[in-house]
Amino acid sequence: MKKSTTFTLLILILASWSGKAVMAQTWKADDIIGVWLNEEATGKVEIYKENGKYFGKIVWLLETTDKVTGKPRTDVENPDPKLKPAPLLGLVDLKNFTFNGTDEWSGGTIYDNKNGKTYKSYMKFATPNKLKIRGYIGFSLLGRNTIWTRSIAPQK
Fold this sequence. Notes:
By secondary structure, this protein is mainly beta. It has one domain (26-150): Lipocalin (Beta Barrel). It contains one helix and eight strands; from the N terminus they run αββββββββ.
């Protein structure tokens, strides 16, 4: 075998090993804690821990006021009439997630304030600063993914 071919093969093997090391990363339960920008860049959610479970609340909105009323945006799509006037800012939209010990936060729900529906959900890191969230009905095959990006807390 020529030296250049051997060298190229060695580089390819090393590159594949380094890629596997990144993909096999184990996470700590609290690595998920922080502020995350949603995929549409219209809101930020702060994920926090409470009584051993993980929750997320809306801490920033690109559009804070309703275009029609000029008042703070509320949860108008909520199916419960009593909750429709609740402000979106501060709304807890991720609830009751637990960590599996390696790479997934599951057993929780995600609320979509655009349609007023709550879905079963799990979360995994795509990269250290990208969080893949899957919301689904029934089986996880029947759902959709969104990717959130780690962010900074909004200015108060």
